[in-house]
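Dear support,

Our group has been running a series of protein-ligand predictions, and this particular one with NAP is the one our PI (initials K.S.) wants archived with full inputs and outputs. We had some confusion internally about which version of the output was final, so please treat the block below as the authoritative record. The input we submitted was:
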Amino acid sequence: MSVSTITAAAERSVLQQVPKQLYIGGEWRDGAKGTLAVEDPATGESLCEVADASESDAKAALDAAVESAETWRAHPPRERGEILRRAFDAITAREDELALLMTLEMGKPVKESRAEVAYGAEFLRWFSEQAVRIEGRYAISPNGKGRLLTMKQPVGPCLLITPWNFPLAMGTRKIGPALAAGCTVVVKPAQQTPLSMLMLARILEESGLPGGVLNLITASSSGEASAPLIADPRLRKLSFTGSTQVGRSLMAQASEHLLRLSMELGGNAPFVVFEDADLDAAVEGAMIAKMRNIGEACTAANRFHVAEPVARRFAQRLAERMGSMKVGRGTEDGVEVGPLIDAQQRTKVSELVQDAVGKGARALVGGHAREGTGYFYEPTVLGDVPDDADLLKQEIFGPVAPVKAFAGEDEAIAAANDTEYGLVAYLYTRDLNRALRVSEHLQTGMVGLNQGMVSNAAAPFGGIKQSGFGREGGPEGIEEYLESKYVAVSL
Ligand code: NAP
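Confirmed final output from the archive:
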């Protein structure tokens, strides 16, 4: 389906295919609290209603995950992997409809949704291959007398909570390794974007996943649905992707049972450009790091620190590129910037820009919300941003690029690290020694070296400081769902 052939009928058809109930114990059922509406952020209109889970629905989902835990962990790893691989194939074959669905609920242009479908599916393929590579160790004790046997075992039933900004990939990044490791799960997607995950549950069901292994609840009150599960000692792990604020509150709840945690939280990524960088490549990378996902990515470049001699040129070129982007509904031809997720997010972005301009920043392009329906905000570049501007400290989560000049390498590193967050940093330089030196000093879990995107299913994605802990993807990803058990052997 090309973008020009997306019709209202195609939209209706794709929405009709989505199961809109809770998926518990292999059955689709209504929510005890009725339904909740899913909105199109480009129009503000309701797309459809999905089931609204109560506390007892959530408990039923955990009951199902607990009941299935023993049989799933005993399921041959090869077969676990083959189910994931079949789901990868099915998602790939249905890329068009999944991409359209994602655009409808989240707003990003269809081309970007396609990229997320491919990226999201890749976690299922990667972990289908990791399922058969879960290994332990056999070692000789240092005194030579005993043997040390280390085995890896699934942690047990997991609760997986995901955000709205990557409606599919944030799910597969957890579901892939959890199922590959032999864990059963309860998944709770964001209420703004449950449709992609509901389709994923249907695809996994059709790919042969036994009932009860994956359970999916959608809920208008996340706290009400998740708190009783976190308080239940049968739950063995919580993997959360979302804001640092909610992450902290979940961590406090989880402390009661010392629940094992993975926390993929907010970011405030610096994008550092040295004077020796290839400026064309840096602008290209900046466009990706800033504008992918309408700026609504945890990895979005939040601050541009550019060496003084090239700062003005960089800002002007970025402003030209961002100013020429077509803003509109993600289903329209040629659109590169969709709406923000909701009115609250647009207000937050507007306020951050007003604060910076009020303190002396100059808007080189944009600087305003777009009038009319939908939650659109103009691509914006700000120059001469003062140190006390709030958007240097907070996650913007929108298409706004503040540019600041720096005088030398030490100043660049200090500016980049001047944040409580530590997810990712981007670095542009042609000097290899500087690239490695600065990468070592950046206080982040990931560095994009001369590239504006780091996401890759085969790499360990995650942060430090207030961006959380734990890694998703790569060989590390499955370890989050495995325990090491040591058996002391006497010969
Ligand atoms: P959020 O408000 O923290 O919500 C994330 C998820 O938590 C949603 O499913 C939400 O459900 C649920 N939730 C909210 N309050 C809860 C509570 N009291 N108890 C249990 N669950 C609760 O974050 P968001 O606005 O959806 O996502 C944006 C944030 O995610 C940004 O900060 C971004 O940086 C971060 N993020 C991080 C990564 C990473 O890998 N580090 C990746 C993507 C996004 P409702 O929808 O019902 O509120």
